[in-house]
Amino acid sequence: MVANFNRLDDLRLASMNVKAECGNCGHVGIVDGPKLWRWFAIHRWDATMTKVADHMRCSVCRRHPTMLTPTETSPSMDFGPCSEAEWKAVVARLRR
Ligand SMILES: [Zn+2]
Question: What is the pLDDT of residues 73-82, one digit of tens each?
């Protein structure tokens, strides 16, 4: 069920993840959708799907991913804070 996937908000509501494909080296990574949404929210970045790649990097070659698609596959990589305390620390740093 992948309908109306325009913003990360849609992924969060549907509890979907994001498959990010790198057109340069071919690397594919699955990122936790709700976590990605929260990461964008605290940075106040534009969560429109066409803009999301601007803030993501291929973990192999550091280029921006060329294709982002919603998926129900479990995340294959981790990023960002891994506890509430770490989330709070990031927010505190951003708000300074
Ligand atoms: Zn790459």
Answer: 999 998 999 9
Residue 95 Cα to ligand 1 midpoint, Å, equals 31
Between the CA of 77 and the centroid of ligand 1 the distance, in Å, is: 14
Q: What are 16-61's pLDDT values in tens digits?
A: 999 999 999 999 999 999 999 999 999 999 999 889 999 999 999 9
For residue 13 the two structure tokens come to: 């509501």
Whole-number Å distance, alpha carbon 68 to ligand 1 midpoint, is 13
Q: How far is the CA of 20 from the centre of ligand 1 (A)?
A: 10
3-state secondary structure of 20: strand
| Tokens standing for residue 69 | 């698609």
CA of 54 to the centre of ligand 1 (A): 14
Asked if 46 and 91 touch (Cβ cutoff 8 Å), the reply is no
Residues forming a β-bridge with 89: none
